[in-house]
């Protein structure tokens, strides 16, 4: 007997020790603490002052908490009656209810009833645990401590603001808005009781409306018996019907909220510039377009909508079709290669330096030295058009004229212009980018690109984008592009006739209303861009893969162009593209047409090959069919050229070019030149290697 008593005593001693060790610390306050990001979502308001319907994750409700005195009395009474009728008299655990529930469950052979008090349910919000028998045991002791630490009204207020509902909502105020589309004080009596009943099993009860109605009827009868409902109110409640709210689409504006807090950590609970309706529409369009391009290897996209009246961001959408449930990289802020979208800014600088829309450029083959090799630049269509105007070069996004324009304005001044316009991602030395900066080989974010384009859309005036509806400090407004240059560029990229060579007539780039539009595609089809603006709105879109994976040939004109076109068509066009953009882009003191020619050397030289060039035979082509073009240059027309390769016999050809049959090994070459005027010259010798 003594041995048995010792065993029992030892068991209870171990149980007591395990219980003490299993208990967790309790908070000093029921208010979420600063920096407790696992429990709290910072309050972000839309431009109208409404809480943004951010992606709910089941964390603590900070957006729509209400003080206890603002909760309707009937709703308070209904919750206490439904969940914990002895809440005001027990000390955290209702032992009578526990024993009754245990007896009921034992007789049924399964769990039919629970007996958690409001205090215990509040505790599960603070210290969540798996729902096990051991957890229920430990929670009882923690509930006693919690009840002793906080006053009953404080516990009830915390519970009503944090009680879990369906759709990952917490609290009666978010639940009222989610299920009925109204605030607490406007709910009918039946809707209040529905909230108290729904909290037990929201998903099941919504699928079984007859079970929900029965629960409401039982709760109403008990409240009437206590005098909380008069016979008249009870009869009116029974006659009422629930009117469920039509649920708005879930916003995925978490990236916007994070960026707002990063830029303005003090701006919590202040109005952002986001338009909730436009944000939902932007997210829906972006998600739909990504689904349509899934088979072509496009997984992520970003969309930015700016109100040009004050450069406020009205929509800031990021969608990840590959990981839709993860708040990952913000594609609006991610640095990517912008492709041809930098060309309008390049030509604007050239116009400032003396060119105009009719300046003639040469669109012919261009091969330039890159380290010990050669790189041949091509247009997207791989066609060349000879003499083209600046208007045609920009409208058709031709690459060769853009490179020659960069040589005219200078790589460093162009890079400085981009940085002044807010493209902080282009932070390397100009030599790092080389001529490729004209074709978008640097890295910028969609946010930076759109911010720069607002200067073109606003006649050269630049202002930082803002995510706030009311700025506490004035944002600088500076003229960074000459107004005449900005107007000329906007006129060109809004003219469908200017892009006929490469894009043809019609297509996605011919918007229903007059719209300036520019697309861009990075190398290997990794990034597709479209920026479009009218007199009121500017929309920028990016699509691709944040991993850097190539898409299946998606260009800016194929991918995001449809997205920007669809969105702009649904925005209020209360101000058409300013007619002033289409006038005054020619400087009267300058000639209407300027011809840009190549600068040729005064002394004969070889442009191909150059000293130290390294070539490789293509294993896919028979050696006897491979050739490399020799090119000689002189500032006078050439009649013929005689080529000397190693110690072989000289070869004379008409003009300045010769297709030399490739041969492996180290090679040396020079040429004798005869000009049309009879003058003769000789190039320096160049040594090169063929592998």
Structure, explained:
This protein is α+β, with helices and mostly antiparallel strands. Helix 4 crosses helix 5 (133-149) and helix 4 packs across helix 6 (152-162). It is built from 22 helices and 20 strands. The strands form 6 sheets. Strands 13, 15, 16, 18, 19 and 20 form a 6-stranded mixed sheet that branches. The chain has a 5-stranded antiparallel sheet with strand order 2-1-11-10-9, sandwiched between helices. Strands 12-14-17 form a 3-stranded antiparallel sheet, with no helix packed on it. Helices cover 35% and strands 16% of the residues. Among the domains are: 2-239, Penicillin binding protein transpeptidase fold (Orthogonal Bundle), CATH 1.10.3810.10; 605-690, Sandwich (Immunoglobulin-like), CATH 2.60.40.
């Amino acid at each position: 007997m003594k041995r048995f008593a010792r065993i029992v005593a030892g068991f209870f001693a171990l149980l007591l020790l395990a219980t003490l060790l299993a208990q967790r610390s309790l908070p000093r306050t029921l208010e979420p603490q600063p920096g407790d990001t696992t429990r709290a979502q910072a309050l972000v308001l839309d431009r109208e002052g409404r809480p943004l319907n951010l992606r709910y994750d089941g964390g603590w409700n900070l957006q729509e908490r209400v003080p206890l005195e603002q909760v309707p009395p009937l709703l308070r009474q209904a919750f206490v009656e439904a969940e914990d009728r002895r809440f005001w008299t027990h000390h955290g655990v209702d032992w009578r209810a526990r024993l009754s529930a245990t007896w009921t469950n034992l007789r049924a052979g399964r769990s039919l009833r629970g007996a958690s008090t409001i205090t215990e349910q509040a505790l599960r919000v603070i210290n969540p645990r798996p729902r096990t028998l051991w957890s229920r045991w430990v929670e009882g002791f923690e509930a006693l401590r919690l009840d002793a630490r906080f006053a009953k009204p404080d516990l009830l207020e915390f519970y009503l603001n944090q009680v879990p509902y369906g759709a990952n909502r917490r609290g009666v105020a978010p639940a009222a808005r989610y299920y009925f589309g109204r605030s607490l004080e406007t709910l009918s009596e039946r809707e209040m009781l529905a909230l108290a009943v729904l909290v037990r099993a929201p998903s099941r009860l919504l699928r079984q409306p007859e079970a929900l109605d029965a629960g409401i009827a039982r709760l109403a009868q008990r409240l009437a018996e206590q005098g909380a409902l008069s016979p008249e109110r009870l009869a009116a409640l029974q006659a009422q019907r629930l009117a469920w709210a039509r649920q708005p689409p879930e916003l995925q504006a978490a990236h916007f909220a994070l960026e707002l807090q990063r830029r303005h950590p003090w701006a919590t609970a202040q109005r952002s510039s986001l338009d909730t309706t436009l944000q939902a529409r932007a997210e829906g369009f972006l998600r739909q377009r990504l689904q349509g391009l899934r088979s072509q290897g496009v997984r992520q996209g970003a969309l930015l909508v700016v109100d040009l009246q004050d450069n406020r961001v009205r929509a800031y959408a990021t969608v990840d079709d590959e990981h839709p449930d993860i708040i990952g990289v913000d594609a609006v802020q991610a640095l990517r290669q912008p492709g041809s979208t930098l060309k309008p800014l390049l030509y604007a600088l050239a116009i400032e330096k003396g060119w105009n829309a009719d300046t003639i450029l040469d669109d012919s083959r261009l091969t330039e030295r890159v380290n010990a090799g050669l790189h041949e630049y091509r247009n997207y269509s791989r066609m060349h058009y000879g003499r083209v105007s600046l208007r045609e070069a920009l409208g058709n996004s031709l690459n060769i004229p853009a490179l020659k324009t960069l040589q005219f304005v200078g790589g460093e001044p162009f890079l400085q212009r981009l940085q002044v316009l807010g493209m902080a991602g282009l932070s390397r030395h100009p030599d790092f980018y080389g001529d490729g900066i004209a074709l978008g080989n640097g890295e910028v974010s969609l946010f930076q690109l759109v911010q720069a384009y607002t200067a073109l859309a606003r006649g050269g005036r630049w202002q930082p984008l803002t995510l706030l509806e009311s700025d506490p400090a004035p944002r600088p407004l500076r003229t960074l592009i000459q107004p005449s240059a900005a107007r000329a560029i906007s006129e060109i990229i809004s003219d469908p006739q200017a892009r006929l060579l490469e894009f043809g007539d019609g297509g996605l780039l011919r918007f229903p209303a007059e719209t300036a539009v520019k697309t861009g595609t990075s190398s290997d089809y990794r990034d597709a861009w479209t920026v479009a603006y009218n007199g009121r709105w500017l929309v920028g879109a990016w699509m691709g893969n944040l991993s850097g994976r190539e898409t299946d040939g998606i260009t800016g004109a194929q991918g995001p162009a449809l997205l920007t076109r669809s969105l702009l068509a649904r925005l209020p066009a209360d101000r058409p593209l300013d007619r002033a953009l289409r006038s005054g882009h020619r400087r009267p003191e300058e000639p209407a047409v300027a011809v840009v020619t190549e600068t040729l050397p005064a002394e004969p030289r070889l442009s191909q090959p150059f000293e130290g060039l390294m070539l490789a035979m293509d294993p896919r082509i028979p050696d006897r069919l491979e050739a490399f073009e020799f090119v000689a240059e002189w500032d006078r027309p050439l009649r013929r050229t005689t080529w000397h390769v190693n110690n072989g016999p000289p070869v004379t050809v008409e003009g300045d070019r010769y297709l030399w049959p490739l041969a492996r090994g180290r090679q040396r070459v020079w040429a004798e030149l005869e000009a049309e005027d009879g003058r003769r010259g000789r190039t320096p010798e160049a040594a090169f290697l063929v592998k």
